Amino acid sequence: MKIRFLGAAGTVTGSRYLLTHGGQNLLVDCGLFQGVKNIRSRNWKPFPVAPKDISAIVLTHAHLDHSGYLPRLMREGFDGPVWTTPASRELVEILLEDSAHLQEEDARHANRHGYSKHHPAEPLYTAEDARHAMKHVRSTGFGEPVTIGPFHVTFSGAGHILGAASIRVECAGKSITFSGDLGRPDDPVMKPPEPLAPTDWLVVESTYGDRLHPKDDPYETLAGIVSRTAARGGTVLLPSFAVGRAQALMYLLSRLMDEHRIPELPVFLDSPMAIDVTGVFRHYRHEHRLSQDACDRVRDAVTYTRTPEESEALASNRYPKVIIAGAGMLNGGRILHQLIAFGADPRNTVVIAGFQAEGTRGDALLKGKRSLRIFGSDVPINCEVTQIEGLSAHADYSEILDWLRPLERAPRRVFVTHGEPVASDSLRQKLEHELGWSAVVPEQDEAFDLK
Asked: Distance between CA atoms of 308 and 310, rounded to whole angstroms?
């Protein structure tokens, strides 16, 4: 068995791992590259392996940096099955449709205003491509093995978001486990990751491989941000991932209002995708911590703005309020229109919650930039910019080590991926020095023989 790292190597995005044995190719994750331009440009390059030669794909979870390249790969010739968990399948359908819509919309906008270097600008894939891809996606439950040629695949809960899994692949009497994105043991909404089973090799994420989550309570931090913004008559903008983060923010805001910790402000979920995801969230209550009553309270505390007209009306509403809108790293979606509307007013606040990949607009704001290039124009950001770090859905390095420590036998080697270079190498050193394990940070397109 061999493994080849086609993505998430030296970067925190574009998760793609190729397992090969006996002429069969299994792709674990099929993610989009996101972030700085030279990373994003990899999405447009020919796939390193002929797509028609890939036997099947398995997805750890639905986030686009793990699933978002599927329609493009199928356009280029992949025609096999895609396996994931039931909740992930529902979320993948929502995310791919939204991703395709945004790409089509961005291409139309670029052509209309002439700011693309390509004439005409084209989307990476279309909504029709996304619908075609979903015809290939199948689901299996946690702990229910799937056989794909010589590979036997089992999904186990990873926390993080609905449906998220660690994937164990057994082949020729050996095993390799892919952590996927690991959730946190004390996440306010999601359940903790399931224990790691013994494995010969391990591929582990390192998004927070060099950091610990702050001890500050994000609940208290959010209360302070909303209260002081409301006191000056401002609007709180919460850029958010549609899956997981939006639902956690809705839950925390509803609790804060119930406990009279913040004023009774209108809260708007300005994301059709997040609205759809919230519906899925209610259907899979066994995968998260919230009771039916808590789910109902979240629903009642928030106004959904699904149509473009409703979203535009928000932009002209100058009363104090909270707007949750995608995307979480400010790399697209309705949050960009709300930034144009509210970013210049110092009464308002934009809140960055969670990890921001290098090169994204969210990363730029955290580094002090106060003008953002949006739709070909420079938009001033004079409002308060602040951050809530404790809401990340990723385990930090201490929580990752705690997940690994119970193993009685060390893996033969650990491959540290899905992190910025410093974060990945930092986790590698911790694995070697604290656990005494053999670990390596693979490079893009590097291959290893799993003997």
From this structure: 5
